[in-house]
Amino acid sequence: MDMDSRTPRRALRARPPAAAFFDVEGTLLAAPELPEPPHEGPGPPLGRLWHAPVLAALHDHAARGHLVVLVTPSSAEAVAPLARELGADAVLCARPRSPMRGQGKGYAARALLREHALLAADCYAYADEAADLPLLAEVGHPVVVGGDPVLLRHARRGNWARLPGPVPREM
After folding, report:
1. 81, 37 contact by CB (below 8 A)
2. Per-residue pLDDT tens for 55-108?
3. pTM listed for this prediction
4. Domain containing 112 — which CATH number?
5. What is the per-residue pLDDT across 109-147, written as a single tens digit (0 to 9) for each?
6. Is residue 111 included in any domain, yes or no?
7. Domain range holding 54?
8. Total domain count for the chain?
9. Which of 8, 81, 98, 111 is most exposed by smallest CB count within 10 Å?
C-alpha cells in the first residue's frame, strides 16, 4: 500500500463528506512512539496500547463514511501495519526532506483536503500536544486529547471538543 496522502487505501465510491485526522503517538496510541515493526509477519500486538475513546471516535468516523487519516512523524514502514489494521484511508507520515511535525502536519492536512475537495469546516482532527496545533487549526472540529496546557487554552477560547488523555503504559 502506498502510504502517500494522495493515495487513499480504499477506492472511494463518492466524495467523502469529511475527513478525520488522527495523530497517532500519544493520541490514538497511549505510547510516545510507534513500536518497531518486525522484519516479517504481522506488527506487534497493540491491544493494550490503544486509547479507547480516540479509537472509538476513529471507528465512528469510518462508519459515517469519513476519510480516516493517520498522522505520524514515523516512517511509512513503521505505520503500515497500524494503517492496515485500522483500515485507514490515508496516512500522512515523514518522508525524506519532509518531516511530519508541527507546521508540516498542518500543510499536509490542508493539501489532503484540497486534493479531495473537502471543506475544512466539516472535518475533524484529534491531537494531544502543542506541536499539533497547526493540524488542529486546519479543521472545523478540532479535538484536544489530554491535558496539554497550550491546547487547553485554545480549546477554551475556541470551544473545541476534548477527550481525556491516555493512561501512560509501557510498550
Report:
1. yes
2. 999 999 999 999 999 999 998 888 998 999 999 999 999 887 778 999 999 999
3. 0.85
4. 3.40.50.1000
5. 999 999 999 999 999 999 999 999 999 999 999 999 999
6. yes
7. 19-33+45-163
8. 1
9. 98
